[in-house]
């Protein structure tokens, strides 16, 4: 029996499709991009690139920002700046999009996947410390994975869904073993940890401006740091490592990773609206909390007392034993009503693209993955559309419970 046959239709389908998360273009984007086109400043040189970097650095609370073509390239360069080399290992959240794990492989290194903690769904600081203390050997200069024998070189916590990782204990244990920390804040622009912006705690921080992020340039990223030497080297490596731009002399392998002026112009216009976008996201989260908080079997996203979340992707956990419906069946039922939702990413320790043999077990991430579902939460989501989502969920759950009681 298909999921469409299991449950009777609840609320009628909406007249229009409700997407999961789409960009919000309502500021100076057209004006700034037109200026680039009118003046022919469309490539990686132009005033908007520098302006976007300054705006991002100011927002992140760092001295420097280097614009890149996407968040993955910012992560790749950050790993090189951290001295990550071939056959090194980097600790990373297992519950994340695949990009940071891929970036580790670009550097020739290997990811070690760390489990999530169950309350905020972030990288578990206790699991990080446990692995470094018990799963590694330390000779006073190098840390090595007991299982693989490879050198552990860095820690890469990923702030997922707009909420911060609890960084203090991770920074403390990383400092103990002289490990650079690279913040993947690609989903965390506008969020804070203990009153300080994400991206400013590690040796470097990375942001993404992909189409589904809280602000977008269509594609694009940013590397931020407080270290002037690292900033200069990041700019050098992302611009094909030019040692003599007149004679085109290159003494190292560089990368074509610089953001274009056209996309930076869009980023400037989006950054001007970041506070309003964060406020809209938080209002959407509050509306969901009020409406869905009383549904048995639903665990809603929390905000830690030490955090300010943007609720970038509003993600709930669904206990099938209580609700009578799995997260994936709810996804399909919402889809039948023209409402888009999405599960979280396959935990990276299960990815066939990556070797998890040097990683500890990650049971919490497995449970979260089975239960998680992200709901529509675009900055421009109307109250009427959100009410339609809420009403549809309530109707589907009621039908599921009714069918369960009949059985």
What does this structure look like?
The structure is a single chain. With 407 residues, the protein is of the alpha+beta class. It has two domains: 3-24 and 274-406, Aspartate Aminotransferase, domain 1; 29-114 and 121-271, Type I PLP-dependent aspartate aminotransferase-like (Major domain) (Aspartate Aminotransferase, domain 2), CATH 3.40.640. The protein is 38% helix and 13% strand. The chain contains 14 helices and 15 strands. It has helices spanning 3-6, 29-39, 47-60, 71-81, 99-106, 125-134, 167-176, 228-238, 261-271, 274-292, 320-323, 327-336, 363-371, 383-406; strands spanning 64-68, 89-93, 110-114, 136-138, 143-145, 152-156, 182-184, 192-193, 196-197, 204-208, 221-225, 298-299, 307-308, 315-318, 372-374. It has a four-stranded mixed β-sheet, with helices on both faces. It has a three-stranded parallel β-sheet with strand order 3-2-6, with helices on both faces. β4 and β5 form a beta hairpin. The longest helix has 24 residues, at 383-406. The chain is globular, with a radius of gyration of 22 Å. The chain starts with a helix and ends with a helix. Mean pLDDT is 94; it is low at 1-13.
């Amino acid at each position: 029996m298909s999921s469409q046959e299991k449950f009777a239709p609840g609320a009628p389908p909406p007249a229009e499709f409700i997407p999961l998360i789409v960009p919000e273009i309502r500021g100076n984007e057209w004006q700034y991009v037109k200026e680039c086109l009118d003046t022919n400043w469309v490539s990686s040189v132009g005033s908007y690139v520098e302006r976007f970097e300054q705006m991002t650095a100011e927002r992140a609370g760092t001295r420097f920002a280097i614009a890149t073509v996407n968040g993955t390239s910012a992560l790749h360069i950050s790993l090189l700046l951290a001295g990550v080399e071939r056959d090194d290992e980097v600790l990373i959240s297992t519950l994340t999009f695949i990009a940071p794990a891929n970036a580790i492989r670009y550097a020739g290194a290997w990811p070690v996947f760390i489990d999530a903690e169950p309350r905020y769904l972030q990288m578990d600081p206790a699991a990080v410390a446990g692995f470094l203390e018990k799963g590694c050997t330390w000779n006073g200069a190098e840390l090595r994975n007991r299982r693989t024998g490879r050198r552990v070189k860095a820690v890469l916590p990923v702030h997922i869904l707009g909420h911060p990782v609890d960084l203090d204990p991770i920074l403390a244990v990383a400092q103990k073993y002289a490990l650079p920390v690279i913040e993947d804040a690609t989903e965390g622009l506008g969020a804070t940890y203990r009153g300080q912006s994400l991206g400013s705690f590690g040796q470097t921080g990375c942001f993404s401006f992909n189409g589904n992020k809280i602000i977008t340039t269509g594609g694009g990223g940013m590397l931020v740091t407080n270290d002037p030497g690292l900033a200069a080297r990041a700019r050098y490596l992302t611009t094909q490592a030019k040692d003599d731009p007149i004679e085109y002399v290159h003494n190292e392998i560089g990368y074509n990773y610089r953001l274009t002026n056209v996309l930076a112009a869009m980023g400037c216009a989006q950054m001007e609206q970041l506070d309003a976008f964060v406020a809209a996201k938080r209002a959407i989260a509050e509306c969901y909390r009020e409406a869905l908080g009383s549904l048995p079997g639903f665990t809603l996203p929390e905000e830690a007392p030490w955090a300010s979340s943007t609720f970038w992707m509003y993600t709930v956990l669904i206990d099938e034993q209580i609700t009578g419906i799995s997260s994936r069946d709810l996804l399909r039922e919402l889809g039948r009503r023209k409402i888009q939702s999405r599960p979280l990413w396959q935990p990276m320790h299960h990815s066939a693209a990556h070797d998890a043999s040097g990683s500890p077990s990650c049971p919490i991430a497995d449970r979260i993955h089975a239960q998680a579902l992200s709901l529509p939460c675009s900055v421009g989501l109307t109250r009427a559309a959100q009410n339609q989502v809420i009403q549809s969920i309530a109707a589907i759950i009621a039908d599921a419970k009714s069918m369960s009681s009949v059985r």
